[in-house]
Amino acid sequence: xxxxxxxxxxxxxxxxxVCISGVIGQLLLIGVYCLPTKPIELNIGRGAExxxxxxxxxxxxxGYRQATLDNETDATMLSEALFPSESCIDGAVTVPRYIYxxxxxxxxxxMAYLNHDDISEAARFNYSRYWHGYLTILKPFFSVFDYxxxxxxxxxxxxxxxxxxxxxxxxxxxxxxxIAFASMLIIWNPATIGVSLQYAACFYISMIGCxxxxxxxxxxxxxxxxxxxxxxxxxxxxxYPIVTFGIPLIFLILKDKNESTxxxxxxxxxxxxxxxxxxxxxxxxxxxxxxxxxxxxIKDALVNIDSRTSTSVEGVEIxxxxxxxxxxxxxxxxxxxxxxxxxxxxxxxxKYHKSIKINATTVALVLISLVPILWFIVTANHSYIHPRLVxxxxxxxxxxxxxxxxxxxxxxxxxNQS
Length: 418
What we know:
The protein has helices spanning 2-32, 38-45, 49-54, 71-82, 88-94, 106-114, 135-144, 147-171, 178-188, 190-193, 200-215, 221-235, 243-255, 262-292, 297-308, 320-332, 335-352, 360-369, 371-378, 380-385, 387-390, 394-417, and strands at 96-100, 122-126, 312-313, 316-317. The protein is mainly alpha-helical.
């Protein structure tokens, strides 16, 4: 009886946290939509012309997904941030932007608005099914700083966060895993993330999650992953969301690697809580938005879920396994990466081949490495269309698999000391 009451209490607590997060999230958006948009427009205008010079899908290293800037989506986010909504509530719920007639992309619509082109040629477009929680940061930020400032500040903060994680890894005697962490960052390419609005959210959420894991002894791990799922749903524009679950989870398992039976429980429980937070926060947006606005956001969301999880791309049938292969090819089939990973794998095998063994931790790491594949299979349409976004999910596989040889050595050392 006591156990059932405990489970019921936990369920009610989770529901309450998700619901209150939805309410707080909506109130925060309403608050920033009350900010005057003229300073935001002026600051975005200073430096935004680089988007026009670069174009929609600017690639500064031809053929590398890691070097692709998603200027089209950045233009969408900037257009939302400066939209002069007459109602704070309506703007916060529907998240409108202007699209000018005859402009082939949002980038050109943004520049047309900044150049004060005839507004009668523009139509209002609502993007209601996403939270767009990043606007709670972008609107206040661009009230003070300009678009060029963003790139420099973003790069600086990300660099500091990376150094903090490295310092915490040393503090937790996890420096041997730096080779796996560095490999993940190389594939992620912080140089691209640092100048992008679109790619920033999942970087920050996943890395802050890692800092929390490494900096303290977490008693309620379920709460951490529930919050990570909620934050991902709120801030991310459906880029590479599962890293906010997988990367902190790997660090949690590596930190507790000598607890033999815990990894499997950790994957299962924390995965459920992250998923409940992620999907629950999405659902709260659709429900709140439908209740407040005149739109049926729930219906729109369900239609898009059906589309994004389908195996049809512009009328052409694809396969789910083919999508996984496409993502593998788009990410790793470049000589610099092949040489790098072959070298790292050979080094790890030579150094740790005597200590590699099958145990709870290594099996758990291998299971976690499969999470991106599962994500690509489920979201086949979205993953196939947007490899420049979702490929960073492979960071989970890289960090997990390259940690496997090292774990055995670490556990042998711990056992000998005991």
